[in-house]
Amino acid sequence: MVWDSFREDIHVYSQGGVDRWVYSTCNFCSNGCGCYIAVKDNKIVGIKGNINCPVNAGRLGPKGECQWESNNSLDRLTSPLIRNKAGTLVPASWDNALNLIISKTHHQLREGGPDSLGFYGSGQSMLEDYYTLGKISRAGLGTHRTDANTRLCTATAEWALIQSFGADGPPVGEEDIDQAQVLIFIGRNSNETNTVLWERALKSRERNHGRIIEIDPRNDLSTRFADLDIRPKSGTNIAVLNGIIHLLIKNSWLDISYINNYTIGFNELEMAVRTYTPEYVEVISGVPVWKLLQAAEWIGTASTVVSILLQGVYQTMDATPAASLVNSIHLITGKIGKPGCGPFQSAGQPSAMSNREVGFASFYPGYRNSDNPYHLQEIANLWNVDVATLPVGAHTHIMEMVDLMAKGKMGLLWVIFTNPVVSLPNRNKFVEILKRRKVFLIVQDPFLSETAQFSDVVLPTAMWGEKEGTMTNLSRRVNLLRKAVQAPFGLPSDLDILIEFSRRMGFKDKDGAPLIQYTTPEECFNEWREVSRGRPCDMSGMSYKKIEDMGGIQWPCNETFPNGKIRLYEDGHFPTGIDEAESYGTNIITGRPRTRREFAQLDANGRAILYGVEWSPPPELPDHEYPFYLNTGRIVYHWHTRTKTARSPLLHMAAPQGYVEVHPDDAARLHISTGDKVRVSSRRGSIIVPARITDTVLPAMLFIPFHFGSIAQNQAANELTVDVWDQVSKQPMFKMGACKLDKFHQ
Ligand code: SF4
Question: How would residue 2 be classed by pLDDT, with cut points 50, 70 and 90?
Fold first, then answer.
């Protein structure tokens, strides 16, 4: 156990004690805290932290402690719903609902072909669900229209890792946080998003007499705890990171031997940062010269540095270039692949990593390149299907699917365990498509979410604690979620529904056997283990029992590393060989995919890739009409669109409604006080929310939590956001946009 001591956080409501505790993992954030579920009379009645889990040593945050409450929510759906001719959702039998889906799917395949239908999944499902979805959609339906809400969340982490190192997979483990002298949080308010990780970082600083650098425009709790707070204007991350690299080079805080032996592209990087003097960076970003000098000195002279990124980098227009610069800082200083060093390009959701590993909203399973004919043949062999039936090339990201639906080129969308009506940028564009009822919408969700209210069929499902499976956390640690109780009303799991769909569709392999031959999550995991063998995310050495016994295992886990591996790239070898890489990569700015030939010409061949990138202003800046920067984000009490957290009385009471943060100078000028109703408007729409006057935001910046999305309440941040995205990762720009503010008079 690396933490100094454990603390068993516990939250139980039970009259007469607990019958049993069942092994599980928190299903809210990417930290993946180990836990046990309390069961009384076949009902979930509480939770406690797992003191033997290396991730959390028994700790749980507020969301984790309260997550079980939504299982017992009285408004859970009890049976499928089908929209009748009068336009009303009415209860239906499982047979009727599934038959309708099968007939609509066949109709759509006949009328529009495989690319006229698509799936939109989640970052909170199980690895086994994603694997099955990927197999059904590609080898069954032959469609590449598969994406997930991970696109909105941390697609950039995946792409930054691919672009720099050749394949996905954060190179560090939680233990590296414990050993780092300098921790850099970039665009990440961990005190709100991953509270247990934040506690671990504070403990590390105390133990190591270390330092925390926060790079974030908001002055929130984590910034106030930092030893150095850098508050750049929105959209200026690249200038700040280039400025730090400029100073590292100028002061020779470099590992020349590492650069020469293990990287390519240093000259390009050096040329690009040449003009980013601290003075120039201050002009662009507003960051004082002394702060940039201090940050560079701490990073350059410390022997161990871990950087931890999230949405402040990932949800911007220049997301992948900026995230790649963080990788470059570690590469040119040689602070990667050794204890206490490396970039934590992290996931946000509990199973976003699983989604990427098994290739649902990403490449082919096992980080196989969907443009590489050898990788496609491998998958075809593993699945026993004809390689010619597998879609080649990039899959379709969700914003592209929205455009295709708007143009009438997609007629069926199956949404699983997510709520795009609240979470997509410029959500009205999507809502208008749904209102036209030209797209047959299937929603799989335990609750009648804002998206489910627009659907043609709703399939209610088992929740956390009522089904089994695995998830990979932000440090590549695979953990298990055991089934603690039977789902109420006999509700099936997501996996049950997908297997039944495949059976009813008659999907077969080359020999006429069912495409999906497993019937349980564990059998599915065992198939996946073999598919992962030999790839970077090798899980061939894992089993459900071993995962439970060890409290989670970090991949790769195979014959060479039977107990997993804390960190990657300790030998300086990166998976950039042409038939090793997950992708041939893209132009770092335009996103144009490299051809196989272009990738070969790079000659990275085992070395990491450095990129030189220039800062350019974001596409939408404040102006005379819309004078405020719009920033959106997360708060500690809610998860995503509150489908579960709003059903926890404690979490709901702590944060019952949306609001906007306004700087005191702006509030005084506009005569706004805390609690006043204000209207926030952008070129996309407007919302009415109460104001909070606080210096957490910079002057001329507004911050709105994105969780609150009821159509009736009109508090959704995504009424305002811009639907443009980073050209490499296709992750939307939730953190930047222009808006205006005025006091609302009824
Ligand atoms: S930090 Fe994340 S995984 Fe841990 S208890 Fe909180 S929400 Fe759950």
Answer: low
